[in-house]
Design brief:
This protein has 7 helices and no strands. It is mainly α. The N terminus is likely disordered. The two termini are 67 Å apart.
């Protein structure tokens, strides 16, 4: 059976058409590769300006001149002192953001049950009939259950954030964002 299958493809394509087929595939691959290369070059060109700005920002944060500015100063034999106020301002902004976003004595988030206006209104009413008493108690129980579920979910989220070292990673991100 396998011998029959091997001969089957050979009968359909003559050597000339097989060669033409391979050339067509190679041409298509070349066109595809050219498109990908062009697209990659465009993306690099678009991103280059942003990355250059990032490098300038990091240099300024560290109190370093750009290479062309340093060369100018060296040729002019001028002062090469870099008055770096950027680091102080950046560190102050970073500290302020971290204080606002991550209080030391409490969570930086809270979870509360979704307010249902009818339940809130009903749970705060005073019963006037026995039927109202049952409905009001049911509403109060539902509000209480929702509040308890929200508190339990808050504890679960808090535990997951602590285990993932969320505060440390978020502070690193704030530092990088302030630098850039």
């Amino acid at each position: 059976m396998q011998e029959e299958m091997e001969g089957y493809g050979d009968e359909l394509m003559s050597p000339q058409t097989a060669e033409e087929h391979e050339l067509e595939i190679a041409e298509r691959l070349h066109i595809f590769a050219s498109r990908l290369n062009k697209l990659a070059a465009e993306q690099v060109a678009k991103r280059n300006q942003i990355e250059q700005r990032w490098l300038d920002d990091i240099r300024q944060y560290h109190g370093e001149y750009a290479s062309d500015e340093a060369a100018k100063l060296a040729r002019a034999k001028g002062s090469e002192v870099f008055v770096n106020i950027t680091r102080n301002k950046t560190n102050a902004a970073e500290a302020r953001l971290q204080d606002m976003l991550f209080p030391t004595d409490d969570r930086n988030f809270g979870i509360y049950p979704t307010p249902v206006p009818e339940l809130d209104y009903m749970s705060k009413m005073e019963p006037q009939t026995p039927e109202q008493q049952g409905a009001i108690e049911a509403a109060r129980n539902m509000v209480s259950e929702a509040t308890e579920s929200a508190m339990q979910m808050q504890d679960v989220i808090d535990d997951q954030l602590l285990e993932s070292r969320y505060h440390i990673k978020a502070r690193d991100i704030i530092h990088d964002a302030c630098q850039l």
